[in-house]
Amino acid sequence: METYTDVLLVTANVGSLFDNVGEIQNEWLQELYKTIHSYKPQFIALHFQEVGGKDYMANMGHAEDFFWSIESSKEMKDYDRVSIYVDNQFQAENSFTALGSMYFIHKTLENIQQYDFNVKDFKAVSGQNKYVGSLDSVTTVEKEKFPKNFWPDFKWSRKGFMRTRWIIHNQGLDLVNVHLFHDASNLIACNSSPSVYSANRKNALRYVINRISDNRFTALPFFLFGDFNFRLDALSLVQHLSTSAEIQTVTKDSSNEVARIICEEKDNDHQVLLHIEEKLFAYVHQAVFREDNGRALLKYDKEVAAFYDVVREEEIQFPPSYPYSEENTKPTQYMNTRCPAWCDRILMSHAAQEFLHRRNDDDDKDLVYNTVGPNICMGDHKPVFLFFSLKTNNN
Questions:
Q1: Other Cβ atoms within 10 Å of 264 Cβ, number
Q2: What separation in angstroms does the CA of 231 have from each of 19, 257, 340?
Q3: Tens digit of pLDDT for each residue in 305-357?
């Protein structure tokens, strides 16, 4: 008999929650709980990146409190089984990823098992399973930091991935928490199409897909969700935004290295349309990124297309998820630090997409792919969620 299990997947880069402890966190949590209450899923997967924020050495204690506050909240009381994995071992430079994953199972969901990668078998899930530390000896999770040669210019990086594996009724799934490399400089991102950063993310994501599909374990349908750091194709976008402008490139005094790019309107008193520096992307008509959910700019969102041979994504109908203002009074404004982009995503294998149950139009709980807290300050990243009914076989 075919059955359906309501599933909620959420990805959130939470770094700014810890860099501004207390200011954003309460409202952030309330928006998460509202989403859970609205969809009433039986299985919840929360994938967090940048746990502890930039100053993780000082903030990691706050990060643990954040996880426990979710687990113990009255809003989650009907989820009687929990698996929590937090990599907080920042002393271990070769393995620290700052990733955290939480999985909640509702009391009505009876037939669920989790995989033990050591004994290569599934086991029934019971109680509260909480793992905080290096996770190296935890057999129900696989965690890996990207090899150093992926990005030799970076002295140190926390980027990597974390995988858990589940059976809901008789349907097996891999759930993979991913954090890929960011754009270090807006100016370098404008140099080529695709950018050097895009090429690096492509290598890293292909590495993840190869790792979760290799022959160590039986391949299963998978969901990849996290901060992919996908950016718009900056070179093409800047050309588009400045079609009616004169582009000036200003170099540093003692070299030919570009210091800033300035696009001025040819008329209109030479108003500056766009000003780009290493960590500045100031576009005068910022509303283009919000109008119609930024749909006009989706054609510059090219990075995921290289993976259509193995992954799919539901249609994006929300504005770029990053970089939002961290001021409470400006919840829909973008910061002028980076070009807004759909960094936070939920991708799935072709096989996984086949198990998404698409209900009739008159059903009130159809598949939904959207942001959490669109009109509330959630930090520099808006969390992204996918709600769906998973087709399962209860025989």
A1: 18
A2: 23, 23, 8
A3: 999 999 999 999 999 999 999 998 999 999 999 999 999 999 999 999 999 98
Residue range 110-137, pLDDT digits in tens: 999 999 999 999 999 999 999 999 899 9
Between CA 206 and CA 204 the distance in angstroms is 5
**CA pair distance 201, 229, nearest whole angstrom:** 8
Rounded distance between C-alpha atoms, residue 61 and residue 73, angstroms: 18
- d(CA 189, CA 114) in angstroms, rounded, equals 41
The sign of the CA dihedral 342, 84, 368, 370 is negative
Contact indicator for 394, 3 with CB cutoff of 8 Å:
yes
Tokens of 383: 């969390």
Separation between Cα atoms, residue 211 and residue 217, nearest integer Å:
10
Asked whether the beta carbons of 245 and 274 are under 8 A apart, the reply is yes
Question: ∠130-131-137 over CA atoms, to 5°?
Answer: 140
* Residue recorded with tokens 């086949």: 354
DSSP letters, 304-349, are: GGGGTTTEE-PPP-S---B-B--STT-TTPBPTTS--B--EEEEEE
Q: Which of 277, 266, 379 minimizes the C-alpha distance to 330?
A: 379
Sign of CA dihedral 306, 309, 313, 314: positive
Give the C-alpha distances (Å, rounded to integers) separating 323 from 180, 185, 343, 348.
16, 14, 9, 24
- Report which of 140, 20, 134, 139 is spatially closest to residue 86, judged by C-alpha positions: 134
User: CB of 192 within 8 A of CB of 279?
Assistant: no
Angle between helix 25-39 and 56-72 (nearest 10): 30
* Both tokens assigned to 204: 């890293």
Amino acid identity of residue 125, one-letter, is V
Q: Taking CA 165 as the corner, what is the angle to CA 159 and CA 170, rounded to the nearest 5 degrees? A: 155
Closest CA to 204 of 180, 238, 169: 180
User: What three-state secondary structure class fits 214?
Assistant: coil
